[in-house]
Amino acid sequence: MTSEVVEDTADQDVFGGVDSHADTVHIAVISDNGGHLADAEFATTPAGYAAALAFLNAHGRVSTIGVEGTSSYGAGFTRAARAAGLDVVDVNRPDRAERRRIGKSDPIDAYAAARAALSGRASSAPKDDTVAGIRALHNAARSAVKARTAALNQITNLLVTAPEAVRARFGRLKGTDRTEALARLRPAGDAVHTAVLTALKSPARRVKELTAEHDALTKALDSQATAHNPGLRAAYGVGPDTAAQLLVTAGGNPDRLRTEASFAALRGAAPVPASSGKTNRHRLSRGGDRDANAALYRIALVRMSSDARTRTYTARQTAAGRTKKEIIRLLKRAIAREIFRYLTTTVTVPGITDPRPPRQARNITLTAVAQHFGVWPTTISRLERGLSRDDDLAHAYRAWIQTA
């Protein structure tokens, strides 16, 4: 532990800065005019957090604490500081240009965080813990997908160099059929065939297990996301994974995002000027949270393919000479505006499963309903079971079933 106390500062306002790591946090204290007062290192334990807060309070009235990584390594200290009634703001790590200029060390980063809190450059409140469960489920589900993809790629690579008899038997199969056939294998034959078939069976069984694991995690994730924000989950094109990503990025307290424009910038959906000479245009943003940007992209693609209003808009913009990238940029910006309203406004979502009992009472088949509305029977079935939402179709269905 190192410290450097300049003078008695017990009666003045001070600002704290925290450079967080897995095992330690480095705390720096500066005065309200930016003077360095002291810095020290503490363990990431309850006792260490208590000592760190006592260290800060010993130098004056703590106005604000800037913490690097409030949702990662600094999460424990952030919880302790907020429980103690202290104001905490989230600080971005210094960019590369600044680090090349002033260097890199724990004290330097901690003092930089304190200066960011003093100047107001860091002003965002940290995310609260209400989405911690959604974040955990989301990470686990994505991990299962990555592991399943790796296993599927392993199967494909093994079949490329497998003996001709094995390739002829399993190479023509695709998707689930191939996985099921390989998982049921009973390796036999000479040493080479036995080894190859054993190697193929192992990742195939892994794929089946990971698929079941992912389905269970997605179901739990859907339940959590729907309970946390039913309006967001009910929005057209927003599935469990997409809703979870948007909630994780915004945090459980989206009021920390003061304006809709700042929300769009956070998701990399704010238009960036790209004009030069006689050209006056904007381009897609390359900044912001790229996972959240990908979530907006998925929503845009779903709506471009199946939402009537979006398809009409896309056709109109195409006729005006815009490229697909430009149209997607415009859609993502509009979707960000819509999502911001869902995150900051409580939306009551009506149930959509009520048409099923009257349909069954009237002995009307799913096929008859689907033919009337010009959709697939699966669409009506998923709507009745609450597996997908389409409020316009649900309203029309309710009105029709009462007179059918």
Structural notes for this entry:
The protein is an alpha/beta fold and 404 residues long. It has 4 domains: 13-126, Nucleotidyltransferase, domain 5 (2-Layer Sandwich); 131-228; 240-344, no CATH class; 356-403. The protein has helices at 46-57, 75-83, 96-102, 106-119, 132-160, 164-170, 175-183, 191-228, 230-234, 240-250, 260-266, 290-306, 308-319, 324-344, 356-361, 366-373, 377-384, 391-403, and strands at 13-20, 24-31, 36-43, 61-68, 88-91, 272-273, 282-283. The strands form 2 sheets. The protein has a 5-stranded mixed beta sheet. A hairpin with a 4-residue loop joins strand 2 and strand 3 (36-43). It is globular, with a radius of gyration of 28 Å. The termini are far apart. Mean pLDDT is 87; it is low at 1-7.
What is this structure's SSE topology?
Layout lengths: L12 E8 L3 E8 L4 E8 L2 H12 L3 E8 L6 H9 L4 E4 L4 H7 L3 H14 L12 H29 L3 H7 L4 H9 L7 H38 L1 H5 L5 H11 L9 H7 L5 E2 L8 E2 L6 H17 L1 H12 L4 H21 L11 H6 L4 H8 L3 H8 L6 H13 L1
Parallel strand pairs: 1-4, 4-5
Antiparallel strand pairs: 1-2, 2-3, 6-7
Q: Describe the biggest sheet?
A: 5 strands, mixed
CATH architecture of the largest domain: 2-Layer Sandwich
Distance, first to last CA: 79 Å
Proportion of residues in extended strands: 5-15%
Q: What's the tally of helices?
A: 18
Q: What structural category arises from helix and sheet content?
A: alpha/beta
What is the CA-based Rg, rounded?
A: 28 Å
Order of helices and strands: EEEHEHEHHHHHHHHHEEHHHHHHH
* CATH topology label of the largest domain: Nucleotidyltransferase, domain 5
Please bin the fraction of helical residues: 55-70%
